[in-house]
Amino acid sequence: PAFHAVRDKFYGKLKETKLSQAAVEVLAVVAYNEPLTVQQVNELRGTASGPVLSQLVRRQLLRLDRGTDKTQPPQYSTTKRFLELFGLESLGDLPRSQDVDQW
Questions:
Q1: What H or E segment, with its residue span, contains residue 78?
Q2: Which tens digit of pLDDT belongs to each residue from 17-39?
Q3: Please, which of 4, 27, 55, 82 could form a disulfide with 78 given CB 3.0 to 4.6 Å?
């Protein structure tokens, strides 16, 4: 607390942001099925998800993994920051239901 003013001057004030419904859907799809390509996310959601995936990568909630084989499409996975923000030790802590298992 004693250094919040210095931190705010250096980094700028911390700003809380809310995730859109689309962002929450994409996070859930990736978290329960990772790793996924953009095409797989699109198929599971039934709509284009590229811009939302990019936003979640910028927010460091997802990471984009590009394999060494250039013929393989990049895949999205959750990050350690995702786990921390949602209070999870691992993806195994995610709730399960019949609906989720059918994805």
A1: strand 75-78
A2: 788 999 999 999 999 999 999 99
A3: 82
